[in-house]
Design goal:
This protein has 362 residues and is mainly β. The chain is built from 3 helices and 26 strands. Helix content is 9%, strand content 65%.
């Protein structure tokens, strides 16, 4: 009850602000969305069970934000909350902002080009007051940023993107200090002949200073036979990981080969994806591949049936190698226009499903 009384006491105040500050108002806000959907067995319609269908198709309205503003003052409705905002600039580079809503929640902020202070609370009481501050700057090629708050938490970041060169490699470093400890990252990158590139990085977890538990990553990228080959070695928490890849355009599509080895397990994925728009009278594409779990494929197609009606078809298949079950098959057909859609889905793992719905802006 007390909460409701406080809310009623704030609303007239916000309304008064609107009356004083919005003699000439500007309204802005996007259109709102109206939508509804239902999904079930096609036999539901055959059996005349329309109650659940109509229940699902009841319109759900997403209300838009609405704003009235003038000369730094604004009155808005967002997510069912009435807000009053004030913003002003002074001393050329300083900005002050204040927001109060109909629940007496408020937040204020003061910012410059390199510093900011933000405060939030509820009502006139300072018991729940929370503030956070930030300051940034640059000196001798280093970027420094300090964040801290009323909970005595801090985050100090020092970064130098161009630390220098060593044996032809460009060096960079970043360090971050928090209440839980310090973490650092060191990067080295070098270009090689033939448009190849070699990189290395090492980063320790926050507060962990054992080099063996840090993450070491080395990468080599090399153009090969019209494609791009990559090799990555990862050492983290005393565990080695190896990753290799090769991609190349083949016959109007893209071939992708990936291999990995970690924790004594070999993984791989070989795939080929291609658009079929040049060989079929519809906008279509195919994606097939094989990985360490099995064989898979996907076919998708789209066609305009009329000026406002489009049809989409998709088929998926997967067969697990060494499994007891048969192949998993699924396909769907969808008809849609500007106001709504109807989609039929069927797969080997279940009975057919019908999905209908609509969505439009009002």
């Amino acid at each position: 009850m007390g909460r409701q009384m406080r809310r009623r006491s704030v609303v007239p105040g916000l309304a008064g602000l609107a009356a004083l500050g919005f003699g000439v108002s500007h309204w802005s806000g996007p259109a709102y969305a109206v939508k509804g959907s239902w999904e079930g067995a096609p036999t539901t319609l055959k059996d005349g069970q329309y109650d659940s269908v109509l229940k699902g198709l009841e319109p759900a309205v997403s209300l838009p934000p609405i704003t009235f503003k003038r000369e730094g003052l604004a009155l808005s409705v967002e997510d069912g909350r009435l807000n009053a905002d004030y913003q002003t600039k002074f001393d050329a580079d300083k900005t002050f902002q204040l927001r109060v809503n109909d629940e007496q929640d408020w937040r204020a902020g003061l910012s410059t080009a390199d510093a900011s202070l933000r405060v939030r609370g509820h009502g006139p009481s300072l018991d729940d007051l929370f503030w956070e501050a930030s300051q940034s700057g640059s000196a001798e090629g280093r970027d420094v940023q300090l964040d801290f708050n009323s909970n005595k938490e801090y985050n100090l970041t020092v970064a130098q993107e161009r630390l220098g060169e060593l044996l032809g490699a460009e060096l960079a470093a970043r360090f971050r200090a928090t209440n839980d400890g310090v973490t650092g990252r060191f990067d080295a990158h070098r270009g090689l002949p033939g448009h190849a590139a070699l990189s290395y990085s090492v980063e320790n977890p926050v507060g962990v200073y054992d080099l063996a538990r840090s993450a070491h990553v080395g990468e080599l990228a090399v153009p090969v036979a019209g494609g791009k080959a990559g090799l990555k070695l990862v050492h983290e928490n005393s565990v080695q990981g190896y990753h290799g890849s090769y991609t190349r355009d083949v016959s109007g599509g893209n071939a992708d080969v990936r291999v990995s080895y970690k924790n004594d397990a070999l993984g791989y994925n070989v795939s080929y994806a291609r658009s079929l728009g040049d060989v079929l009278p519809v906008d279509a594409g195919v994606h097939v591949g094989v990985d360490d779990a099995g064989v898979y494929g996907k076919l998708s197609a789209h066609r305009s049936v009329s000026q406002d009606l489009g049809a989409d078809y998709e088929a998926r298949a997967r067969y697990e190698l060494g499994g007891d079950s048969g192949p998993e098959l699924a396909h769907s057909l969808k008809l849609s226009n500007k106001l709504g859609y109807a989609q039929l889905l069927h797969g080997s793992s279940g009975s057919p499903r019908l999905r209908v719905g609509y969505e439009f802006d009002a």
